[in-house]
Amino acid sequence: MNVLKRLLLITLLLPITAFAAKKECGVKPSYDITINKESVHIFNKKDDLTIMPNGNVVLNNRSILPNPSLQKKLVYFQQDLRQQLPLLEQQSLNLLLEVKMTFEQAIKNHISNDSELKSELNKLYKRLVKLLHASIITENGNTQFSYQHFNNIKKEGEDIGQHILYNVVGGSILHFEFFKNLGAVKQIAKNEWKAQKSKLKAFEAHVCSVITDIDVQYKQILTQLNQSINN
To answer: CB neighbours of 34 closer than 8 A, spacing ≥ 6?
Structure first.
């Protein structure tokens, strides 16, 4: 029976490991971001940009005095990052918790209030939170954003789900109870995900919108700063 319970858990929650929709956002960041009280630092192997709260900047180890218009834009941009990235992290955590609790209630309603099953559910939830925090995390007022983890979050989430599935099922895929209950397992998963689908799609679009806006602003600012150096 333990195998069946774990299979049910994974069948219900495997879609979470891909963080909702399969459609990818058209914008993929190519830079890490570190935010603290002193500055906002945006960097990769090509460009290294530090923005102070007053709009002063250092680009590739060179201090630049921006014109008033650009300085104002820099002030607003770093303020936006200070607000949007921690908010995006918290919204993602809230959604994961909400979906986890939804399926926890579904399991309770359709099977039992089994402590072992709840334990397995929490293990998977914690691994997904850890995956999210590899992409974006705020600690002690400092925020770190890793573009490589962010861009690969769906792939890494799917890998987590598959890894758990293989470990749990092992050589027991021919277990009679699994086949006997497969229809019921699929129906529960289908019903719950149907109820969550619109919410998840809306959040996916929200994440893409935030990241796209940040990317557009960053590229515009970088272009303007390079132009000011060359003039």
So the answer is: 40, 41, 43, 142, 143, 144, 145
